[in-house]
């Protein structure tokens, strides 16, 4: 069984679309467990979830790493799949995940494209097929064997930013990480609000700050100052 863990905070609209999608694009929907790890939504997120066969988990704080860890702990599947609420998955994504793990990977993600025809965003998405850590991120989702997730201690919930890069680095120290051809489609809403090149430059600076050892406090302050949501 695959346990899909979706961290959420005020994602009612996106969750409705995603949960509806899961019912008809999975190869074996009955062998999926879906958990919404909610960080204290004040919109209709919980009400939307009541219309689907999902487990709604109230988390103690709105922090993505902590929410995903909580979802992972209460899930039952042998495979964990961490997914953002504003994603659109490839057809039979669950079959692709199982095939990857059966062929020797211990974890992996999908390559990615944006829901926008902007040529620069298309170029950014094209690059995600390459196995470079700087290109990885939560928008590509993450699947991992439960045993491996437990062995590495899950996500570092002391990290408010870059938790995806951190866990993938630790995964690769243990075994094969595979980028599966999907692609997964992610929302370009943050790029539209902030400007494509401007936001990409901000992300690059955050990457450099992270690699240079800046504290999480400084990374978060920088992000909040320059990224509009």
Give a quick precis of the structure.
Helix content is 43%, strand content 21%. It contains 10 helices and 8 strands.
Structure description:
The chain has 229 residues and is α/β, with parallel strands linked by helices. It has 2 domains: 2-187, Alpha-Beta Complex (Spore Coat Polysaccharide Biosynthesis Protein SpsA, Chain A), CATH 3.90.550.10; 189-229, no CATH class. The chain contains 10 helices and 8 strands. Strands 3-2-1-4-7-6-8-5 form an 8-stranded mixed β-sheet, with helices on both faces. α9 (196-211) runs antiparallel to α10 (216-226). The radius of gyration is 17 Å and the shape is globular. 38% of the residues are buried. The model has no long low-confidence stretch (mean pLDDT 95).
- Estimated share of beta-strand residues: 15-25%
Reading the helices and strands in chain order gives: EHEHEHEEHEHEHHEHHH
Which bin fits the share of residues in helices?
Answer: 40-55%
Rg to the nearest angstrom? Answer: 17 Å
Biggest sheet strand line-up: 3-2-1-4-7-6-8-5
Mind summarizing the main beta sheet? 8 strands, mixed
Supply the number of helical segments: 10
Enumerate the spans where pLDDT stays under 50 for 5 or more consecutive residues.
none
CATH C-level category of the largest domain: Alpha Beta
| Second-tier CATH architecture of the largest domain | Alpha-Beta Complex
Instruction: Give the number of domains.
Output: 2
| Average pLDDT figure | 95
């Amino acid at each position: 069984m695959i346990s899909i863990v979706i961290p959420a905070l005020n994602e009612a609209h996106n969750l409705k679309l995603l949960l509806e999608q899961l019912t008809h694009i999975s190869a074996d929907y009955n062998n999926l467990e879906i958990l919404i790890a909610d960080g204290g939504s004040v919109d209709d997120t919980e009400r939307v979830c009541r219309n689907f066969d999902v487990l709604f988990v109230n988390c103690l704080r709105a922090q993505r790493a902590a929410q995903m860890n909580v979802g992972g702990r209460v899930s039952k599947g042998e495979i964990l799949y961490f997914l953002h609420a504003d994603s659109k998955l490839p057809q039979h994504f669950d079959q692709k995940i199982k095939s990857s793990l059966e062929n020797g990977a211990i974890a992996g993600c999908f390559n990615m494209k944006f829901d926008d025809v902007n040529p620069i965003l298309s170029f950014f998405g094209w690059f995600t097929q390459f196995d470079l850590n700087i290109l990885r991120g939560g928008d590509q989702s993450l699947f991992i064997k439960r045993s491996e997730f437990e062995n590495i201690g899950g996500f570092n919930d002391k990290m408010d930013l870059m938790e995806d890069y951190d866990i993938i680095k630790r995964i690769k120290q243990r075994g094969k990480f595979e980028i599966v051809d999907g692609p997964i489609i992610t929302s370009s809403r943050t790029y539209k609000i902030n400007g494509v090149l401007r936001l990409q430059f901000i992300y690059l600076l955050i990457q450099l700050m992270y690699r240079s050892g800046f504290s999480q406090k400084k990374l978060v302050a920088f992000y909040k100052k320059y990224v509009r949501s």
